[in-house]
Design goal:
heterodimer, A: mainly alpha, 0% strand, globular, B: mainly alpha, two-stranded antiparallel sheet, 9 helices, 4 strands, 46% helix, ion transport (chain A), signal (chain A), NHE-2/4 (chain A)
Chain lengths: 788, 238
Amino acid sequence: MEPAGPGLRGQAPLLLLLLLQAAGPAGARAETLLDAPRARGTSSIPPSPASVVAPGTTPFEESRLPVFTLDYPHVQIPFEITLWILLASLAKIGFHLYHKLPTIVPESCLLIMVGILLGGIIFGVDEKSPPAMKTDVFFLYLLPPIVLDAGYFMPTRPFFENIGTIFCLISAVDPVAVLAVFENIHVNEQLYILVFGESLLNDAVTVVLYNLFKSFCQMKTIETVDVFAGIANFFVVGIGGVLIGIFLGFIAAFTTRFTHNIRVIEPLFVFLYSYLSYITAEMFHLSGIMAITACAMTMNKYVEENVSQKSYTTIKYFMKMLSSVSETLIFIFMGVSTVGKNHEWNWAFVCFTLAFCLIWRALGVFVLTQVINWFRTIPLTFKDQFIIAYGGLRGAICFALVFLLPSSVFPRKKLFITAAIVVIFFTVFILGITIRPLVEFLDVKRSNKKQQAVSEEIHCRFFDHVKTGIEDVCGHWGHNFWRDKFKKFDDKYLRKLLIRENQPKSSIVSLYKKLEIKHAIEMAETGMISTVPSFASLNDCREEKVRKLTPGEMDEIREILSRNLYQIRQRTLSYNRHNLTADTSERQAKEILIRRRHSLRESIRKDSSLNREHRASTSTSRYLSLPKNTKLPEKLQKKKNVSNAGGNSSDSDLEAGPRCSTCSLGPDASCQNSSRRKPPRPIKWSGRTRWTWIPGRINPAAPQLPTVKRGPPRPRVCSASPSFPKATLAPCGVTVSTKASNPSRPPGWSEGPRNLETGRVDLGARSLNGNGQSRPGGTGPAQLWRVT
Amino acid sequence: MGAAHSASEEVRELEGKTGFSSDQIEQLHRRFKQLSGDQPTIRKENFNNVPDLELNPIRSKIVRAFFDNRNLRKGSSGLADEINFEDFLTIMSYFRPIDTTMDEEQVQLCRKEKLRFLFHMYDSDSGGRITLEEYRNVVEELLSGNPHIEKESARSIADGAMMEAASVCVGQMEPDQVYEGITFDDFLKSRKNPNVRAQLTSKEADGGGSVLRSGSHLRGHHDLAGHRHRDQDARPLP
């Protein structure tokens, strides 16, 4: 197992650099990487520097100044670690170059295959037994980030709603493998959370049972006391881990309360405390995974509110990065360690192991879910059960544990290893690859969306909301009770203790500003997300009263509806180890931003609508020239602007970006703007005196006004001709009158902030609302600068 | 009335009226007490205590439905100020699954009742018609979750949908003919029309299937919409 001699070591770096893709030598070095912690710690000290240093490079006795030296051993370990990670990351990039591949074959399979390939090369080149994945490395370094990530981004509510079931389900499936597969196939929320929770919690089971049976095997006789001790041990390990995690989680939250002066190290605390919980739990032989999960779940709510937005983003990204890299490495190492001489094949043993694993899994799931179905209101269907059973993948934990078996107690360890590897590969490859088609096959009732009518869609959404509402009114009594209790306790004590008070209001503003800038840049880079659809079809159909909608129009309307109808809660989970999906709050904030942007743009467009001719899209001019219809135009006018903004978004954004930077927004420019903007406003907002326009506020220095936001549309205004289109004004007046006619209608806005899930952006949005920076329904420029 | 659960006779009476089992009634009664704060009646404000409901864009409509005299079978219009437990059960009973033992006629009746409940939610002024204004209102509320949707676009969607309904119900209209609104018959018609009653794709609604999750085993409220046979495939089942 020890690495090759000095000669090879000397050459290795060059080879490594040149042959990274072939990776043979690199693989060979992995051995040392994996062995390193142990090797260094114990007996086999690597050769002394003198003997290792490549001959001729460092004259030892004569101290001439060397021009060039090569001291590979000096950097060996970090060098190899870096190369491995690099390799893993490159492999990942490689898979995703071809889009369809990851959807067909789970990434874990591909990584294992790469690993096997590398292992084969190492095996062929070195003719040495390839490195085994050392359990130390795995359990102390590779596993925690993955679990931390999963725990931190765990959707708490569904998890606790299903916790009973989860506990019933726990069996020794592997979190890494299962999550890798399940996050790719989009099953429903409940199923996902069951599998997710199960795979997370089962570490307590896996590792504990493993230790238990190992010690049983080492004992000569097993008495009843031992069995009970084992059961007790099981609970101690699990609960102890959770307690440590919760404890450290609170401390972490408490710590971040005081970090506002040293923002830079804020993210560090999250990682340190969670890792500390893991290590501490391991130290006491408690479940580290439970500890780190509990820690992450405990702290994330409070930390999130304490740390700055930047730190928060950093935490999220770093966590994703770590877990992603860990996962990749685990799978590659699994592949690498598969190839080797430590196998002993026995058909009967392997086949029976595999069969029993599958049967046991199926039996466990079906029996236990049958039992739990008596207590569940929404019973798990046969389909769910089947998928859960099918998703019982074995993976790296199993792999690591089997290598951990003491050969003294298990003389035929190799047989065990072989069997375990076969089971793992069978589950990861065969089950992992087939589960997606299977889910799709079982879900065949996906119906044809094309035939759906608009009114039906509305009706159904409405109905969904009614259902949800009634459901909420009925409530899930038990859960609600405890949740309310906890919430009260939380509000009363915990939050006061853990969350910094006097959160400066400005931070909300600054957060908002940051978000705005970020999104403005994003939109400029990517072309705006087409949030505002074209309304041409709608207008058309309004015009010719009874004309049947053409399929194209229907599609369009449907598109609007499906994209924009408020969804009943968050039904799909957004957890993905590899992507940082924008969470709800972020998405909501984004919507607010986009919305603001649009309204601003639109207002400016309106002002400068005359000079549209030099960019007029056909639709625009068409509507302008429409004969005045009674109802249409006022809607049209707006819609056109909106659709304009949406339709031409990409190019206008793209061009706006650079222009914005070149066009300086001096005070005179803003004055121009204000003078130009004034005319429509009095008409639009005549009824609302509180929305007043103060030119001074448009100054970019004003805190609520992110310059980037206003930037893009501005140039257009600058170039606008001062004359004002009468045609546009008149419809505006009509709009106002209709609006004024039903003042009782609640502004749509009021729902907006409520949807925000987390307090953070919720707060932000509310405050924005309070400041009156943004107000949907209104389209005038004045809405952005309301004087309060 | 508030102590209905303790007196078994009263429970039995309620069972007969609403079709709930005694377990379910007890469960709902507990919830009722929780909502009302141990008062015999619930007022509108009590619904503010339901945190989940806050996120619902049509929250006001849902709450309103509880107090709607038409739904309470107490009159043809207007709102009640407060409802007692029996009224609460009455509302809830709209969401009971259709009994499998019922014959076809009863099933039809039951569906009609459920649809009527829904119709009343649309028809907020008890005018017997879903006017354009009401329809717009509904769509606006539905879309209110997305701040970047203009009210005007919501309106035009409503207009489009309205016209669709008109075309389904009235057929070809004269240019000057005015469609005043969807009557309940039209409403039923549009639910029955095989074209309109296309299948539902609502993956996102998965798991939202069960209305009464409180262990009361009341599922199948998807029958509320009335088209049971077809939609059981299409609608998300729990």
